Structures are given as structure tokens and as C-alpha cells.
Amino acid sequence: MQGNGMMIHQIEQKVVNRLREVTSAIRQAGDNQVDIITSRAEREASIEFAKAYAVRLRLVGKALKEIGEDPEVVDTLFSVLEIQELLAGNGEIILLPEGGAASDLITALEAEREVGAQPPPIR
After folding, report:
1. Where do the domains of the chain lie?
2. Is the pTM of this model over 0.85?
């Protein structure tokens, strides 16, 4: 009888081991399927992002072309960009009233800047 008990125990162990192998294989197949679905979704998302980027570039290019055709819009756009840069900087902005000594000083400084720092002509 002990021989039969030992055989039954061996058969049980083989069945348990086989069930573990099958369970592990099923789990691995499920993990692989999830990986395939994830990589497929990532690939499709990448394709859609690339399409959106191309459309965005085309729309921005078209808008810039239309903006460039109107000088008033171009001047206004660059004025806004210049103001944004001034506000983003750490510099100080001083507003001066028109006319008076401050205005004369600004006019003189602008004239000097336009002419440049050239020495007076030799006579």
C-alpha cells in the first residue's frame, strides 16, 4: 500500500507542478497581450501627434503669411512683442511727460544714438 500512496503523491506533485506551469504561461500571455496593446496605442498616439504637429505648422505658416501682408498688423504685432519683452525683463521703465527738459534730453540722446559716437569733423 505504501507503494500506491507514494505513486499517488508523485502524481499529485506532477499535476500541481503542471498547473503552476500552465498558470504561469497564461499570466505571461496576458502580460504580453497588454504589452502589445500598450505599444500599439503608443504608436497610434505618436502618429496622431505627428499629424497634429504638421497641421499646426501649416496653420501657423498660413497665419504668419496673412499677417505679413498687412503692414499695420505687422507693426502692431512687433509692438506687442517688444512690450512683452520689456515687461519680462528686469529693467525699469520710466515714463516722462511730453515737452520740457526731459523731452529735450531724450531727443538729444536719440539724435546722438542715430549719428553714432563719431568724433567731430576736423576743419
Report:
1. 2-88
2. no
